[in-house]
Amino acid sequence: MIPTHHCSLCGYRFNENEMAERGCATCPTRSGGCGLVRCPSCGYEWPPESGSVLAGLIGRLFSREDPKESSRGET
What we know:
Elements lengths: L3 E3 L6 E3 H8 L13 E2 L6 E2 L6 H9 L5 H6 L3
Antiparallel strand pairs: 1-2, 3-4
């Protein structure tokens, strides 16, 4: 399965193949090794959540699930 992304700036949904063809292809470095996700529609870039410790921490802090709620059933 090809990972998909959602641009938080313009709302465009795209997959890794489309990013490589349209997003990274326009990058001046064209190295593909920068590790950022680039929206092929608007060009906005961000670190992937799976590879970023900071993004993972922020995601857990602002997740919709309350940690106290999930631990209540475990006694």
